[in-house]
Amino acid sequence: MPAEAHLLKQVVVHTPGQEMELVSPENRAELLFDDILFVGHARKEHQLMCAVFEKIVGSPDTVLQMGDLLQEAFQVEEARHAFVDQLCRSLPEQNLSTVADELKQFSPEDLRRFALTGESNLAIRVQPVPNLMFTRDLAAVVRKHIIPLQTATKARAREQIIIDVILRYHPRFAQQSDKIIDLPDGVTFEGGDLLVAGPNTVLIGHSERTSFGAVMAIAHELFEHTSIEHVLAVDLPKRRATMHLDTVFTFASPTEVIVFPPLLDTHGFGYTVHLSPGREPGTFVTDMRPNLRTVLDEVLDRSLTYIPCGGTERLHQEREQWTDGANVFAAAPGSILGYERNRRTFDRLQDHGYRVVAAESFLSYYESSAFTPGAEKVAIQLGGTELSRGRGGPRCMTLPVARHANPAGT
Q: Which of 120, 206, 283, 377 could disulfide-pair with 114, CB 3.0 to 4.6 Å?
């Protein structure tokens, strides 16, 4: 089964656009932003990241833009109607039902614009969705099953509707429409909390964005419908700095993890509940563990090397975790992207045999030749001066919908 660091096939992203221009000093906190991004620079940084993905994978169909997918889904009348009806139900205080008929008559392009920015020629306005840039949170893919976002915050309610419409109405996902795992009402889940660690093991963060009820519901569905045998529920501090599991733990290769060290400390956080299927259908066996590392060593079929985010000193570990040093994205085994500003994390990667190179230099070197995934270990530095101010790293900004089953894609 494709796991975290297997060679990428396709990834969904959203390059920041007009919706990001609508974040202001007055609404930024409500929209979950600590700062206001220079959108022009953020776009260039994001486009550079996408160009690296295309070069590593070697296919022009590697990167799928969320806005394009949504507009293509809106070509279906039923999709437009479903979007409007769900929107009216999710935002009753906006009184959108008074203009529902007009919204349903919008062209796919106009409805897409309204969905992303909240702007239209009608006498209404709703908040934009700047967090759409963090496509990882919209869903998680385990085998062929997709678990959509069930948001914990009102600011992301429209994103939940957007991903639902794309998954159910876009022809690209038609073969997976019966593989959507709908979570029960009352639980919350964001995709940054789920990592596929191996053929039969999934990690799920119990965070401020993902409730333990969601962990249990996902475990039940995975045990019933897939060959997953181990779900590790990792308890995280319920605060913004550790809002998802992937803010403290990401795979660089099948055997290497970049980790915020306190997650693995005996007296740190990371208390883990090991869930496995019971003898009777629908039942669990639970095993409480004080530390993620010990149970990972037991359930995985390989040993892991843990590379410390920020190096060996706690101050630097905390500083670089804050700026997403532990949130890297593996486009292939040992081919990763991270923010350049996390210098000490890159130093540790270099110690573990990675060639460290700037994104621009990487693309220039391979401008007229193909990159061979797996031929070397490379850690690619993305400037990310503006993107990092959004408080999400390269993994946060990527939703892989397909990877090769073989790690190197051969």
A: 120
